[in-house]
Amino acid sequence: MEFEEFTSAPSKLEILDTNKAYLTIHEGKFHQVKRMFEKANCTVTYLQRIEFGPLKLNDLPLGEFRALTQEELDALKS
Questions:
Q1: Residue partners of 22: CB distance under 8 A and separation at least 6
Q2: Could you identify which of 14, 70, 71, 78 might form a hypothetical disulfide with 22, taking C-beta atoms 3.0 to 4.6 angstroms apart as the criterion?
C-alpha cells in the first residue's frame, strides 16, 4: 500500500471472522496497521503484537516484560 510517507512492503491478511483478522507485516512504520485498515474503511479497536522478528510473546501477560535470552539477543543481532 502507498502512504504519504512510504510504501509498505507486501503483507498477508487472514480473516478470522467478521471482527477479527491476523495480519503479517514485515515493517511496522508510522502506525502502519491502523492506516492499512483505514484505507479499507475498517477501524482497528484492538491490536495485539504476537511476534517481533524472531521473538514470540507466547503467554507473556499484558503489560509485563521479561529479560531476553542470549539466543534471542543473538537472533536479533543477526
A1: 13, 14, 16
A2: 14
For residue 25, the tally of other CB atoms under 10 A from its CB is 15
**Residues 6 or more apart whose Cβ sits within 8 Å of residue 57:** 49, 50, 51
Phi and psi torsions of 75, nearest 5°: -65, -40
What 3-state class would DSSP assign to 73? helix
23 closest CA partner among 44, 54, 5: 44
Cα-trace Rg, the chain: 15
User: What does the pLDDT look like over 31-59, one tens digit per residue?
Assistant: 889 988 998 899 999 988 888 888 988 88
Give the predicted TM-score (pTM) of the model.
Answer: 0.69
